[in-house]
Amino acid sequence: MSIYLSLKEVWRNKGRFFLFSMVIALIAVLVLFTAGLGEGLASANKEYLEKLDATLLVFQEGTGYSTIESRLDYQKVKRVQRVEGVSNAGPIGFSNVEIVLDGGLDPIDVSFIGTETGKPGLPAPIIGETIRSKQSKVVMIDERIAESANISVGDYITIKSTQGTEDKFYDLRVTGITDGQQYFFQPSIFVSLAIWDKYRPKADASVSSSRPITNIIAVQLQNPENMASMAALIESAIKDVEISDIKTAYESAPGYSAQQNTLNTMKGFTFLIGVLVIGGFFQIQTLQKVPQIGMLKAIGTPNPVVAVASILQIIFVTVFGVALGGLAVLGLALGMPPSVPILFTGTSVLIAVASLLLIGPLGGLVSIRVALKVEPLTALGM
Fold it and tell me: Which of 89, 191, 297, 359 has its CA 20 to 30 A from that of 127?
């Protein structure tokens, strides 16, 4: 009976309910797009660290887990490797350079990352080979660079780096292509730590050595479950360092927390607006049909049937609107240029959709309460 009543009214007022479904669809577009933008911005900031094949990261003490501010002597890498319980440790250096393209194309800004072969920090290639020699002038590049600049394994790329007061240009042969490895909103290229120290931007072009200064040390543990105790052990064994896990490291990046908090606040206000809009619509809808509800009660229709009919009607309209919004977001995502950092993950989409489906019944509670309080005689003017 409840299903019949709810669907019958929707069918008789198709235009009205369709227009309101479109309003819900617009709210769904905003929520899903904000969720995708949040995931995309977060991924562009942390993708390399999130995929890092390590459990702990070693930073210079007092740098607040900043990969750019941290400076570690190369000797600390050997000392970390000798700590009992550490299975492997590798230095990682970060800087930024440009890839110069032929044909007058705009250069590509990239994260220039130095690692050591066979150590944590160097991603595995999905095409080609990894870096095998410390002194080889070879490079592995992010797949985004390969796609946007049409670069293949075996090609040469030219990077521009400011050395002292001059711009220097260096040719590197592409030996492999990795999966997505963005860091600080830029795709990444990987070279050996020795080549990184020679080619990285620096105030003095002559500053380089066989044991360069590195930014952080990535640590693999024999037993990852002992992460907390191993962090304390490394800090006690080596002076002037601080240890963090991967998540803490990327969440401490400048602007990361503020960015995510801003987007989460936007989503919260959008949900609040959705509750108010849906609640207002169905309350007006209920007030317009008070005589009909009074007639139903007068002929013996119990309150639970009226309440369930109202709930089903709200759920149906909300589901239809969310489905329309989801299709619209899918179309927008397919048409977005690669430069827009939008990313949809199963978890974020499910949370957003579940929340959107919840705000429908939540917003309609007031209208259900109004329907239940209708007195048959009063509603019929008697």
Answer: 89
CA dist 269 and 254 (Å) reads 25
Given a contact cutoff of 8 angstroms between Cβ atoms, the answer to whether 20 and 27 are in contact is: no
User: For 202-249, how does the pLDDT look when each residue is reduced to its tens digit (9 = 90+)?
Assistant: 876 665 555 678 999 999 999 988 898 999 999 999 989 999 999 888
Check: CB of residue 79 under 8 Å from CB of residue 211: no
Phi, psi of 158 (to 5 degrees): -115, 125
pLDDT, tens only, 130-148: 998 888 899 999 999 999 8
Q: Phi and psi at residue 319, in whole multiples of 5°?
A: -60, -45
Work out the angle between the directed axes of helices 303-335 and 346-363 (0-180°, nearest 10). 140
Report pTM. 0.78
pLDDT digits (tens, 9 = 90+) for 4-49: 555 666 666 677 778 888 888 888 888 888 888 888 888 888 889 9
d(CA 4, CA 211): 78
Helix spans in the chain (H): 2-12, 14-50, 75-81, 143-149, 193-199, 227-237, 246-251, 256-288, 290-298, 303-335, 346-363, 365-372, 376-379
**Is residue 58 within 8 Å of 77, Cβ to Cβ?**
no
Contact of 278 with 17, CB cutoff 8 Å: no
Q: Which residue has the tokens 């369930």?
A: 308
